[in-house]
């Protein structure tokens, strides 16, 4: 086993666990870190999916009671809202895969540089504080109209782009369609379950078409990254919910502005050094 590679994957997994839930874009950070750590992004897209799967486990564990309640009480309207909210990201993901745009979107540093900047402005202007009266009059998740679920789903589809935060986009959209704060986060991460699962299916199909390329060392490294991302992700999700309730998510905008400038510099440097 390559211990240096294991260390690098551990760093990626920690950032994945933090950035998947905090509104700073996990895919954007993974793309930048893969560049800095010497990974070839084109050959490590599956690693990104494995790490996302770790945070998917964190979501399922954290919202297990919510998922159980939805199934036991047969909340068909909410299930339908989740399905409808998932469609835009599903269509976008398949379209990007079939068109070959993933070779550009998930490898060029210019994409996350622009995405970080977009998310920064999103946090500054779309996640402004809500008064107690506005929060009390907001809709509970069980009453979400299907049209509003679709709008949140479109926000998730846009966030396929590295650098654009999925949690930031969907929570911002949830607030704009007048969902309660906690339910914005809950619906955001319920939508993440089929979205991340779908991405896994697309990448697994490519991976197992050439099973001879997989080694036991690869599996051990992937499992290590999966576990780290899941554990860190669980606690990051708890942190996100606390900051959302206190109206402090905008603080991440200033970090993202710096991340955008840094990533743009890396992109320019990579062009100069070619």
Strand content: under 5%
Whole-Å distance between the termini? Answer: 31 Å
The assigned structural class equals: mainly alpha
H and E order: HHHHHHHHHHHHH
Gross morphology:
globular
DSSP strand count: 0
What percent of the residues sit in helical stretches (DSSP H or I)? over 70%
Overall mean pLDDT score?
85
The number of distinct helices, counting runs of at least 4 residues, comes to: 13
Domains counted in the coordinates: how many? 1
**Main sheet: strands, sense, barrel:** none
The low-confidence parts are: none
Radius of gyration: 18 Å
Compact summary:
The chain is mainly alpha-helical.
Q: What order do the helices and strands come in, and which of them pair?
A:
Elements (H helix, E strand, L loop, with lengths): L2 H17 L6 H11 L8 H18 L1 H9 L3 H24 L2 H4 L4 H17 L5 H6 L8 H13 L7 H11 L4 H27 L8 H30 L6 H21 L2
Quickly list its features.
single chain; 0% strand; 274 residues; mainly alpha
Characterize the structure shown.
It is a single chain. The protein has helices at residues 3-19, 26-36, 45-62, 64-72, 76-99, 102-105, 110-126, 132-137, 146-158, 166-176, 181-207, 216-245, 252-272. The mean pLDDT is 85. With 274 residues, it is mostly helical. Helix 3 runs antiparallel to helix 11 (181-207), helix 5 packs parallel to helix 9 and helix 7 (110-126) packs antiparallel against helix 13 (252-272). It contains 13 helices and no strands. The protein has one domain. It is globular and about 55 Å long.
């Amino acid at each position: 086993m390559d211990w240096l590679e294991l260390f690098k994957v551990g760093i990626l997994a920690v950032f994945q666990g933090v950035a998947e839930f905090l509104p700073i874009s996990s895919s954007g950070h993974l793309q930048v870190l893969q560049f800095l750590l010497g990974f070839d992004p084109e050959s490590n897209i599956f690693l990104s999916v494995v790490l996302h799967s770790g945070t998917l486990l964190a979501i399922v564990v954290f919202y297990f009671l919510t998922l159980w309640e939805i199934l036991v009480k047969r909340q068909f309207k909410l299930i339908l809202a989740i399905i409808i909210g998932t469609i835009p990201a599903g269509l976008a993901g398949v379209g990007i895969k079939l068109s070959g745009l993933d070779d550009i979107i998930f490898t060029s540093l210019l994409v996350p540089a622009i995405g970080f900047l977009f998310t920064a402005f999103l946090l500054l202007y779309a996640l402004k504080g809500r008064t107690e009266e506005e929060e009390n009059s907001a809709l509970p998740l069980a009453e979400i109209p299907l049209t509003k679920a679709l709008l949140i789903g479109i926000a998730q589809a846009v966030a396929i782009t590295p650098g654009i935060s999925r949690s930031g986009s969907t929570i911002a959209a949830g607030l704009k369609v007048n969902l309660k704060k906690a339910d914005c986060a809950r619906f955001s991460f319920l939508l993440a379950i089929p979205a991340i699962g779908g991405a896994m299916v697309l990448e697994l199909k490519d991976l197992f078409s050439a099973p001879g390329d997989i080694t036991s060392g690869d599996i051990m490294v992937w499992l290590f990254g999966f576990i780290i991302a899941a554990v860190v992700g669980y606690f990051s999700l708890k942190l996100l919910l606390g900051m959302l309730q206190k109206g402090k998510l905008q603080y991440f905008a200033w970090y993202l502005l710096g991340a955008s400038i840094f990533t743009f510099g890396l992109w320019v440097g990579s062009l100069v050094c070619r």
